[in-house]
């Protein structure tokens, strides 16, 4: 039997491959009410009006603005979702670094907001911001970079 070694190596006691000596993954709590409203197709503006800390709502607004060709509006919505997500992550033990797994659905709103911020920053020419956002997503969950369309 070969046991994987090196940073992030998965084994039976660590199936996701996270560094057991580093920070543990952060898993945001479920938000069933706003999540179900978005899933039902409700306008994200109405959802964030009722749930202003819900990053997935801000991410949805940013993605809609991006699709409409409104990069400045997308940037503003994405930045709000990013900051709301940082607040939630910190309240749940995140120290500004460490895994924030994409496969945990409540984490996806934050990661989508960061990705939307990267795309909007690129559209308005803020390249340093693009690089910081892509690096943040990669630091949180390397698989999310490709899933969110941020891989070059």
Describe the structure.
The protein is an all-alpha fold. It is built from seven helices and no strands. α3 (55-67) runs antiparallel to α4 (71-91) and α5 runs antiparallel to α6 (127-140). It is globular. Mean pLDDT is 90; it is low at 1-13.
Question: What are the defining features of this structure?
Answer:
mainly alpha; 152 residues
Weakly predicted, low-confidence segments? 1-13
What's the main sheet like? none
Topology, number of strands: 0
Helix/strand/pairing class, anyone?
Answer: mainly alpha
Helix content: 55-70%
Relative strand content: under 5%
Q: Based on CA inertia axes, which overall geometry fits?
A: globular
Average predicted confidence as pLDDT: 90
What's the alpha carbon Rg, rounded to whole Å? 16 Å
Order of helices and strands: HHHHHHH
Number of helices: 7
Q: Note the quaternary state here.
A: single chain
Report, as a whole number of angstroms, the end-to-end distance: 36 Å
Task: Please give the structural blueprint.
Elements: H1 32-39, H2 44-50, H3 55-67, H4 71-91, H5 105-123, H6 127-140, H7 142-147
Helix pairs in contact: 2-3, 3-4, 3-5, 4-5, 5-6
What is this entry, summarized?
By secondary structure, this protein is mainly α. Helices cover 58% and strands 0% of the residues.
């Amino acid at each position: 039997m070969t046991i994987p070694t090196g940073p992030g190596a998965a084994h039976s006691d660590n199936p996701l491959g996270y560094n057991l000596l580093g920070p543990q993954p952060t898993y945001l709590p479920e938000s069933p009410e706003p999540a179900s409203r978005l899933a039902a197709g409700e306008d994200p503006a109405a959802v964030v009006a009722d749930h202003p800390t819900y990053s997935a709502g801000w991410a949805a607004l940013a993605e809609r603005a991006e699709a409409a060709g409104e990069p400045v509006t997308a940037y503003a919505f994405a930045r709000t979702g990013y900051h709301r997500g940082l607040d939630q992550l910190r309240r749940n033990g995140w120290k500004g670094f460490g895994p924030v797994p994409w496969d945990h659905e409540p984490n996806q709103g934050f990661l989508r907001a960061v990705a939307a911020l990267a795309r909007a920053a690129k559209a308005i020419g803020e390249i340093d911001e693009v690089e910081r956002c892509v690096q943040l997503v990669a630091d949180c969950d390397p698989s999310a970079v490709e899933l969110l369309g941020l891989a070059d």
